[in-house]
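Hello,

Our lab assistant flagged a job as stuck in the queue for most of the afternoon. It eventually completed. Since we weren't sure the result was trustworthy after the delay, we are filing this so someone can double-check. Below is the sequence as submitted and the structure that was eventually returned. Let us know if re-running is recommended.
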Amino acid sequence: MSKKRKILVIISDQLRADCVEGALEKHIKMPNIAALRKDAVTFTKHFSVTNPCGPSRASIFTGMYAMNHRSIRNGTPMSDGITNIAREMRKSGYDPMLYGYTDASLDPRTRHPNDPDLKTEENLLPGFREVLEMRFMESYPWRAYLTSKGYDVPDYAKFYDAISPDPARPARPDDPPFYKAEDSDTAFLTNSLIHDLSVRTDQDWFAVATYIRPHPPLVAPEPYNKMYDPAELPKPARLGSSATQTDVHPFMAGALKAPKMESVVRGCVVDAENDDDVQMLRSIYLGLATEVDTHIGRIIDFLKETGQYDDTIIVLMADHGESLGDHHLWGKQNPYEGAYHIPLIIRDPQNPAQHGTVVDAFTESVDFTPTVLDLVGQAVPAGMDGVSLKPFLEGTPPEKWRDAVHLELEFSEPHTTTEWQKATGVSLHEANLAILREERYKLVHFNGGLPPLMFDLKNDPNELVNIADDAAHAGTLLRLTQKLLNHRMRHSDRTLADVKITSEGVVNFTP
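-- returned structure --
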């Protein structure tokens, strides 16, 4: 087993890949992430295998597709029998420390019905130690901190309201919240992480820091609230109107309502049909992303100042993306690139020859856990769908590698009928889709007898033209559909499937 090492994982919630490299990169200031890229390996075709937050993090931390771990919605529990990164790292002697949240919903079979753990979808993934609680719907330490600083703290439901500096006019989205940048949720988490790690310099540690930003509500403290001029930003990639988007597929009528743009801000009014409002919200999102970058810089400076930088593996990633007005959509529960394409940067100080390089092979969020386990010499458990990226970090990429990514989305709820279900008419168990995304072609297969979507990303990178019903592409549609089916069959849960009980004992089983 390898010598133990320090490991820092930073997850920025809802950060699009093109903020790091792509269409938005040239419009946003992220100097610290840019500097880290020169000292690390950047994976430019990295995708979250599912969303929203709970399912995406379940896949990240278990290394499993949603079709296997089955924690498919926020609030859908995951079987306690499924292992995860924290449990496996404990086998290597690490104490998995969490600064932030994991958005885990616990197995009700392991709790009494009255247990408060069964009253929140933002619970702690088993195996982690919650050093700092920053659950989006709770955040009690941050709230207590703001109170101690003398703020006139409002009801928590109004924490993310924009507040007009002029009582004579209503609040605008680019008005700041009640707290200053030095006391924001992003700053508070960073302060807590640095404070705690400052007395662990002589230890090998495993720490996960997960920032809620730039996840909505879109409100930013000064100067991040007006850091970018909305008029100078590119407009979203979209068809001419939301009505035209509705005509693309039955799913879209529901997607345009869940969530509406109006729901991503609080304390003010916006209009999704007003381009000035759209651009303003895009600018605030970029401001929040820059705020995260600022504090990532603080963490890296801390590691360097304390002599830990060259002993620390750093993984920087997002849990999923954000549509940001593309296709007239907001949020991430849709089949387009903005919802799934996310950044991944890994710095392995033991392989400096690869620092500053770019990997354009397809990678998936399920690769995270196998990679970290491989880097510390811990065996990867059977049943994980991901594959270690360590060979890429060493400059020896595998001869055979995936030529597509597999993505999923569930759009039903067990206790209510969702907007997507109302629009499509599908049942609880039919409200799902699966995506196979190759270099050129992308298939979106819907359950429930709904028609597919297919895009030619070479000629239509913004996914504006559906070619699924074009007879000229019938052969491609069939090929991708068969390939998607083959992939899902090949990746059905193998946790015990390759184990056999014989008269001589158990074969092919590793405890």
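-- support follow-up --
The delay was a queue issue, not a problem with the job. The result is valid. The CA atoms of residues 66 and 124 lie 18 Å apart. The first helix runs from residue 31 to 37.
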